[in-house]
Design brief:
Rossmann fold, 20 strands, 6-stranded mixed β-sheet, elongated, alpha/beta, Immunoglobulin-like, 9 helices, 4 domains
Length: about 400
């Protein structure tokens, strides 16, 4: 199709033709014909160029968090010589980058690089890229999509936390804040279950898989000390501003990464019927993707959801509840689940303590408070130190 210059040439040709009709000057007709033929030949040229390009894309770093900058390297290879090629790569929702290549030689890779500010968190689609080729006079262009679309996952920003909640170790008479168990569960065989995405293939029980014609995983018994339940309250009424909810998501991501790094196998609940138990790096990535896409909801009943978890037998070393405004529903969560976990931690987006926070603290919960304009790490460390000072043996 004509470019902007091509449309201008067609407009000029029409004007010259009208002047020829009015004045009868053959030179005007010749100029009009020249411009029209130039545009037609340019269109034929770009059509015959036969765009056959291969496009590749590499995003670094592999894990990108909210506020980071990602580098995207785009490589294009054409099977034919191109003149005045333009490559446009779009990151849907974040922007686009365009590159001009004066001449592209056949089978010679052309490499370009651009930078993306990854904000806010979420999953974005990159591409497919668009390649446009123009004729030498820039009167016509032809565009074609190139390459496949890629995903850019922007995870919530994670803070480095210090300290762990005090839980009982293998000796029931000694408190410890250091995990004394395997990152991937115990060594004792527990049961068989069907394969789920993210499971370690080294744990496939091949004889059972052959008999049942489906992959079966050896489920090893997980030491109860290593279990943790992390609840992110997604109810919109718990947050006064969108910034408060984003701060809560950052707190949940930081706590999830911290617990997993120090040997826990945390189970993440973000308001969906299914939970994700993080026992491998793949499952950790899946849980972080959940946090990358989580949004507030008005329809979630926190008490009924906790009731279902209670009936499922969830218990372990640490219960972490992340929310905005603490209220009676969070007290109900503590009454329902707190007895099954050694330590309960409340992470609240609040500067001051209200009655619900004071009641949870009096009942033995560790409270971590941080405003939406501050960071979680200092408040977390202070709460861990306070928990250690008040911890008792036995």
């Amino acid at each position: 199709m004509p470019t902007l210059r091509g449309w201008a040439a067609l407009g000029a040709a029409l004007a010259l033709a009208l002047l020829w009709v009015g004045f009868g000057e053959r030179l005007l007709l010749a100029l009009a014909a020249f411009l029209l033929i130039a545009v037609v030949l340019g269109s034929m040229y770009v059509r015959r160029a036969g765009l056959n390009v291969a496009m590749g894309r590499v995003v670094t770093p592999i894990q990108v968090h909210d506020g980071d900058r990602a580098i995207v390297d785009v490589t294009m290879t054409s099977s034919r010589r191109l003149h005045e090629a333009v490559v446009e790569d779009v990151v849907h929702g974040l922007g686009a980058a365009s590159f001009d290549a004066g001449r592209v030689k056949p089978a010679t890779p052309m490499v370009a690089r651009y930078e993306v500010l990854c904000r806010p968190r979420g999953i974005y689609r990159l591409g497919p890229a668009t390649v446009r080729v123009r004729d030498p006079l820039d009167l016509a262009e032809y565009a074609v999509g190139a390459g496949a679309a890629d995903r850019l996952v922007v995870y919530p920003r994670v803070e480095t936390l210090t300290g762990l909640p005090t839980v009982r170790g293998q000796d029931p008479n000694v408190n410890t804040a250091t995990a004394s168990f395997s990152l991937t569960g115990g060594e004792d065989f527990f049961t068989l279950r069907e394969y789920q995405q993210g499971d370690d293939l080294r744990r496939v029980h091949w004889p059972s898989s052959a008999r049942r014609d489906k992959l079966m995983i050896k489920q090893l018994e997980m030491p109860w000390q290593s279990r943790a339940l992390l609840l992110l309250d997604p109810r919109s009424q718990s947050y006064t501003t969108p910034e408060a909810f984003e701060h809560a998501v950052r707190g949940a991501a930081s706590a999830l990464a911290h617990l997993y790094r120090y040997g826990y196998s945390p189970t993440l609940w973000v308001g969906e019927p299914e939970v994700t138990t993080v026992s491998s790096s793949q499952l950790f990535t899946m849980a972080m993707e959940q946090l990358a896409t989580i949004s507030t909801s008005r329809t979630i009943d926190l008490r009924s959801a906790v009731g279902r978890m209670r009936r499922s037998g969830m218990a372990g070393g640490a219960l972490v509840l992340v929310t905005g405004i603490t209220d009676d529903s969070h007290l109900a969560v503590y009454r329902a689940l707190g007895r099954d976990f050694v330590r309960t931690l409340l992470m609240s987006v609040a500067e001051d303590s209200n009655d619900a926070i004071l009641q949870l603290r009096a009942a033995g919960a560790v409270t971590v408070q941080s405003s939406s304009t501050s960071k979680w790490a200092p408040a977390w460390q202070e709460a861990m130190e306070r928990a250690w000072h008040t911890a008792t043996a036995g």
